[in-house]
Amino acid sequence: MSTAPRVNHEIDYKIYGEELQFVEIELDPQETAIAESGAMMMMEDGIQMQTIFGDGSAQQQSSGFLGKLMSAGKRILTGESLFMTAFTNTVPGKKKVSFAAPYTGKIIPLDLQELGGTIIAQKDAFLCAAKGVSVGIHFQRKLGTGLFGGEGFIMEKLEGDGFAFLHAGGYIVEKQLQPGEVLKIDTGCLVAYTPSVDFDIEFVRGIKNFMFGGEGLFFARLKGPGKVWIQSLPISRLAGRIMQYGTYNRKEEGSLLGGLGNLFDGRE
Fold it and tell me: What sign results for the dihedral spanned by CA atoms 192, 71, 131, 33?
């Protein structure tokens, strides 16, 4: 456990809910939390909301105008906006601001100080953080991982010593991999990992698995040491099932048999 003083703002928090969660952050006077645009759910009077260029971290602020532009511009590569929103407590006494998860799943609190200062996460996982946490990008170094790893060449990199909050779908599993320990998971189920974990992809062997397995052509292969966070329901899988359900039509729909079928499978 690190005992060094924090450089990032030190915030308190509480997570509410089970499947559709939100995180309530308590800010002392002049403390600030940052979040993606649209994540705010509610805030108390006395908190000032301000749109900022990039993430507002010291790393970005010390790089000059061109450096700020380059740093913020990299966020476009992850599908995020150039701008983030900062929420600052401008009055005496503690004030609270809450951020909501965008879909069914869990909010993952990460103390970057306790995790070595850096986390690699999927592109859409970041929800909010203490001011000072740098939200940058991480390029996959291996060609195969970038092409087939489920997240592409580019992931998000969170750096600092404050709290950051991720969101992922379904149930979340946190695993501590020992040195040399290998874990194979579906590529879309990876949420985040510490940089000490070796992330690679592995081809699914066997012609029957290739053609009929239904699990995709590649596994994510994670080798310890380090921590890994895994989600049981990636949003891409959920969206695919919803699309499949919405566009599926039985030949007998509208008939008596079709109506009975709908009763049995819950569609009526």
Answer: negative
66 vs 215: CA distance, rounded Å? 44
Q: What is the pLDDT of residues 67-105, one digit of tens each?
A: 555 555 555 555 566 788 999 999 999 999 999 988 889
Exposed e or buried b for every residue in 204-237, given b needs 16+ CB within 10 A?
eeeeeeeeeeeeeebbbbbbbebbbbbbebbbeb
% of the chain at pLDDT higher than 90: 47
The answer to whether 112 and 120 are in contact (CB under 8 A) is: no
Q: What is the pTM of this model?
A: 0.79
Enter the DSSP assignment of 36: -
Domains and CATH numbers, the chain: 12-168 (3.60.160.10)
Token pair recorded at residue 37:
């645009």
Q: Which residues contact 117 (CB under 8 A, 6 or more apart)?
A: 159, 160, 161
| C-alpha torsion sign, points 55, 59, 63, 64 | positive
